[in-house]
Known about the structure:
heterodimer, A: 2 domains, 5 helices, B: mainly alpha, 20 helices, mRNA transport (chain A), transcription (chain A), translocation (chain A), nucleus (chain A), TF_ENY2 (chain A)
Amino acid sequence: MKEEDVLTAKMIESGELNRWKELLRLRLTECGWRDQVRLLCRDAIKQGNLEEMTVDQLNNEVTPKARQLVPDAVKIELLTKIKTFLQENTLQESQ
Amino acid sequence: MFKIILVWILLTFTCWGQHEYSVQNYLHHVKYQRVTSRNSRAVLTVSCWVVCGTDGGRRLLGTKPSTKWTRAGRARRPSSRRRGPMINMDELINQLSATILDDLIDDASLGVIFGVHRSNKLGYLAIEDGFKDNNGEHSEGHPIVIAPNMDVFGQVAIKNKQHECICPSCNRTLAASRFAPHLEKCMGMGRNSSRIASRRIANSSKEGNGNGNIASGTGVSDDDDDADWTFGGSEKKRKRKDKHSTKKKNSRVKNGGAAASTAVSDSAYNSLEGNISSGEQAAPVVNGAPTFESFGAAEKKTLLLQICGVVSEHTGKLCTRTLRCPQHSEEQRRNIRNFFKSFQTSTESEPLDSDNVGNVDVDSYEDGDSQAVREALTRGASWDQATEHSSTSSPADSTSTTSSSSKKPTTSKGGKKGKKGSKNSTPPSSIAVFRT
């Protein structure tokens, strides 16, 4: 019943989630994704009201584009990692 | 129980055909724990599995689901629940991992967004991205110029031209960096200035000759120097010229047409000095003889009247200070003059010399009773005394034989004559000095 909860807890407990985060940050910095997102943010700020722009507004505007900008290689790498982790854990669970 | 069934039915209908979305949604909800009550969460989970199960069944059957199918689904629920996870595990994992990945990406982008937002609020966004911003926004104010022979502000580069100064005393053009050292030498301030020697000679000659119109007011040569410093360049130059001209005149009068400018006296001084340093060990004039002899005894005398002339132990050169130089004693000066005298007696003719001495003394008396002149006179007199002494003692220790003995009487005569000449016009006080 609580399989997902258990999985989430495991991800956090084992520190795997943090590891993924770090890896993703590294990869994204390497490929210049951060700079691209920065540019997106700045464009959004310039288009919108300079002072009134909130984080939520920015997030709404930028996040979808930012997702698309992530290179496929990075995506695949992380996906495989996550999948293997999940599979291992579900297998343990089922056993 | 009824409630649960109702929710399940509802969910089944809503999620019909778009179970993927529902699964994703569910996972999302689970993740963000937006589902509050444990009970409803459990219900959602169950319903989700059921949907998956029906989907699996649908796939197996390959038919469109009928309305009755739900009920059948419900009937088959236990079995589907067993099979569902097993069949759709990979898919589920895919979904889950995709969700997690998206989540991670959102997290990363949120970090960037926070950073940008913060920098925007604090106003350093433009500064952080400086270069691009300069090109775009602030280019009106300070555009970056990339052009040859210009700096980034668009100003023409200043040529590294050296400034040139004109020396006020000698009117030469010099590089500014060399001006201060040059001035030190040219104006005669430094220790090793080339002009200081001639300046001193000129000053002391003024005193010695007694035509001290300039020096008579103060009577001290140092004050004269100070006045030079305060005067402007042109005035100074004129003054120097005057000095030269008067001196030239004097020397002409004295030497009877022999051209003796300061330059000549300088060179005389140099040759004398060279002679001294080379032939200090009482060696008769060998190397420096021609130069030494090329200047008459009169010139040598004027030189010795002007400067202290004591040979330094350290440098082996003549002391170029005035006759009242505090560094050397009267005794030393007398000795060095005796030394010169011994040369003179052996080489030079004396009548000119004696005349000269007389001339000098007479000149000095015309200008009268200033203290400086009187002192200078006493120096001259002491020199005369020295010559007298030397003339008397020269036969005893002179190395040369014939010439010295033959010229001895003339020397003494010259000395006496000079003394006589001075005696005629000396005030009583200076006579007293004389005789001591």
